[in-house]
Write a structure and sequence with these properties.
Elements (H helix, E strand, L loop, with lengths): L11 H22 L2 H8 L3 H8 L2 H24 L6 H18 L1 H12 L6 H20 L13 H20 L9 H21 L7
Length: 213
């Protein structure tokens, strides 16, 4: 299945209102329970406009995923700024930059978390295919220009990338589940998360055993 953009151009003010209402509805209720009636009511647009531009709920969901990812990646690049050549420091920069966006747009991240980890069955293959390149591009940038002089002999950048992605993707999923809890004290969550990130970075940098043989 090919992912499609809106069938017809849509005025910017209506597009923005519809996107915000769509993200909120899907984040709060999930794809199956989400209601297009509630979406158009919150966006103050007609249901005819929704179907004219997006075809159906499926088309609206796909458009929202694509649009949110594109916009968040743009803002992430702006927020990140210059990066350290040290692998672990750069990873920490990535995590903190991402969380700063989570704090600003928790509903958007809750929506994308579901779309990327537990997508609707009928859209799973298409959504995973559409986000695979974004994920791969993120990790390519994460490891571009890394100083490997401190790496143990035989350890490749690709191996380090896999190890770190497994660790911090799992940590990210753990914290993403908190985004659905309301009310949510994002500052408290941030403090705990930063502490855990620093702990795992230290473990990965220095190892687990006190005196490895």
């Amino acid at each position: 299945m090919k992912l499609e953009l809106p069938l017809h151009p849509i005025p910017e003010d209506k597009r923005a209102a519809l996107l915000a209402a769509t993200v909120h509805e899907f984040a709060a209720n999930g794809y199956l329970a989400a209601s297009t009636n509630r979406i158009v009511e919150a966006a103050d647009v007609s249901k005819g406009l929704l179907f004219h531009h997006f075809g159906d709920k499926k088309g609206l969901y796909v458009y929202a995923v694509q649009t949110c990812i594109t916009e968040l990646m743009r803002r992430f690049d702006e927020r990140l700024g210059p990066t350290s050549p040290d692998l672990f420091e750069r990873l920490r920069q990535y995590v903190l930059a991402k969380w700063s966006l989570v704090e600003e747009q928790p509903s958007t991240f809750a929506f994308l978390q579901e779309a990327m980890t537990d997508p609707p069955a009928e859209l799973r293959d298409a959504l995973l295919a559409s986000t695979a390149e974004i994920t791969a591009s993120t990790y390519r940038r994460l490891f571009q220009g890394i100083d490997t002089s401190a790496f143990r002999p035989g350890v490749t950048v690709e191996q380090a990338m896999h190890l770190l992605s497994w660790t911090f993707d799992g940590l990210g999923r753990q914290y993403a589940t908190l985004l659905r809890q309301q009310p949510l004290d994002l500052e408290s969550v941030r403090n705990v998360m930063v502490g855990e990130v620093d702990t795992y970075v230290a473990m990965l940098r220095h190892g687990i055993e006190a005196n490895p043989t």
